[in-house]
Amino acid sequence: MTMPTSKSSISISRKRWKNYVNDQSADPLRFSKPKSLSELREILEEAGKLRLKVKAIGSGHSSSDIAISRDWMIDTHGLVQVFDNLQLDLNVSADNLFFVECGIRIRDVNRELEKLGKALINMGAFDGQTIAGVISTSTHGSGIMLGAFPDYLRSIFLLAEDGTLHQIERSPGKGISKGPARIKEAGQINFIQNDDYFFSAGVSMGCLGIIYAVVIEVTNKYMLEETRHFSKWSKVKKELQEGNILLDKRHYEVLVSPYFFNGNDHKCLVTERIISHREYKSPLIPRGHRKILPELFVRIVPTFLIDAAIRFLINHFPKIIPSFVQTEINTLTDKGYIDKSYKVLNLGKDNNLAAYATEIALPEKRYLDAVEEIIRIVNKSVDEGRQYLTAPFSLRFVKCSPFYLSMQYGNTDEFVCMIEFPTVSKTIGGLELLARIEDALYRFGGIPHWGQINHVGGQGQSSVEKLYPRFNDWMRIYKILAPEGRFENDFTHRCGISHFHDLK
Ligand SMILES: Cc1cc2nc3c(=O)[nH]c(=O)nc-3n(C[C@H](O)[C@H](O)[C@H](O)COP(=O)(O)OP(=O)(O)OC[C@H]3O[C@@H](n4cnc5c(N)ncnc54)[C@H](O)[C@@H]3O)c2cc1C
């Protein structure tokens, strides 16, 4: 039942919201899908009067509880306007800047940029998320010279709980603007150029305010060539220890099977991508990331059937899982896949399978030891309780980020290795094994991805204060911009970052 309750009829009640992988849901008191800044402001004003918490949501692609609220959830997909850069008062060239509202999906960003002859400098393995969603959780792709999404942020328009629209940039001399932008509907904009504000507001998991719009840096459109080959962990480890491989390729990623083959080794799939200057001809049969027959199979057979078959097999015959994981790796080898950058960076059909993941950022100096520990834990769990990892785990190397609550936070001359553990939904023992791995990786300096399943919080090794050296600076800005804690939720409570629990 839909019941308009606010003056602009933008709010409904009795709506159940579920995230993309169906592992998080909420029945909030109110649910809105605003289409303008004025409507957003109206919601905040009413929430303030009713003393309700508010949470902006993107595409719900986070598997963690980060986006849910019991009070008022705001679907941002109605906010997709692309602005003219002339509306910015710039002190740099407007050529490689893209100014857009928060709710646009990455796939639509790619489409809009292509019309302009431009492209994202980097992206993750999927394009269904919103631009504000990927910035808020520090979503990343790969490349040690390339940062995660927030690192391309140049200006952020944050709507605070009191209705003020702040335009936040780096400190004077490093920011891109001379003064506030001219957005007709916005009225007066509070212009802030301050590194503490900027590096706090970018990755803030929706806590500091509602990101209304962003300006990101982009580049001229380009082609990528992808090669995927089979290898083994002993060889890959040696190449990584020698070091140059990560500098030679724009993108270098590895999938590792935790299970033993040929005695003491582990199957791996190495993916390398470089910029291609070869002439591009659109192939008759669209290419994907794997051998042609498996690619046709996943394109033709409905995803729900593949999901059901895989789930049935792994839960009833868990012993097949190691062979299943190795077969998965074999089907993915491929070479000479050239296409537009955003097509090659997108993993494609695999993103539709019902799966969730835990993902941990490991420091440059510890990740190789962490891999050995992961292999040990998985095999111990198999031996002791038949708990299996149902997919290979992946290593993606990402430049460190200056954003205070980014999982990749660190000196920007260094990199982190993001290790992801995708798991088929409803795998027996799947969540328990992920939690065991997460616990172990804290000892290696690991920091869990905000948007993937995690247990960050509490007093111990997983406390936000211990994980993030600039947490206190972030908290200071948080209290200034959101003094009433309007954007807190159960996630901020369990993480220990709520500062104002008792609104009601
Ligand atoms: C198939 C799939 C593939 C993925 N691939 C990758 C990958 O390659 N790399 C990676 O790092 N992650 C990946 N992820 C994780 C995903 O990118 C992140 O969880 C991302 O944050 C989801 O974006 P979203 O738009 O769905 O945001 P949501 O999940 O809806 O929200 C995430 C957070 O952003 C906040 N938020 C959203 N919009 C706003 C706004 N306008 N203002 C303030 N706060 C806001 C929400 O409150 C919440 O805290 C993947 C997830 C899936 C399901």
Element layout with pairings:
Blueprint: E1 11-12, E2 17-18, E3 25-26, E4 30-32, H1 37-50, E5 54-57, E6 72-75, E7 89-90, E8 97-101, H2 106-115, E9 118-119, H3 131-136, E10 153-159, E11 165-169, E12 177-179, E13 189-193, H4 195-201, E14 210-217, E15 219-220, E16 223-232, H5 233-242, H6 245-248, E17 251-256, E18 267-276, H7 292-300, H8 303-316, H9 321-331, E19 334-340, H10 341-345, E20 355-363, H11 367-385, E21 393-399, E22 415-424, H12 430-442, E23 447-448, H13 464-467, H14 471-481, H15 490-495
Parallel strand pairs: 4-6, 5-6, 11-13
Antiparallel strand pairs: 1-4, 2-3, 7-12, 8-14, 9-15, 10-11, 10-14, 16-18, 16-19, 17-18, 17-21, 20-22, 20-23, 21-22
Helix pairs in contact: 4-14, 11-12
Spatial strand order of the main sheet:
19-16-18-17-21-22-20-23
CATH architecture of the domain at 223-448: 3-Layer(aba) Sandwich
Helix content: 25-40%
The third-level CATH topology of the domain at 223-448 is Vanillyl-alcohol Oxidase, Chain A, domain 3
Largest sheet: 8 strands, antiparallel
Oligomer: single chain
CATH superfamily of the domain at 223-448: FAD-linked oxidases, C-terminal domain
Name the bound molecules: flavin-adenine dinucleotide
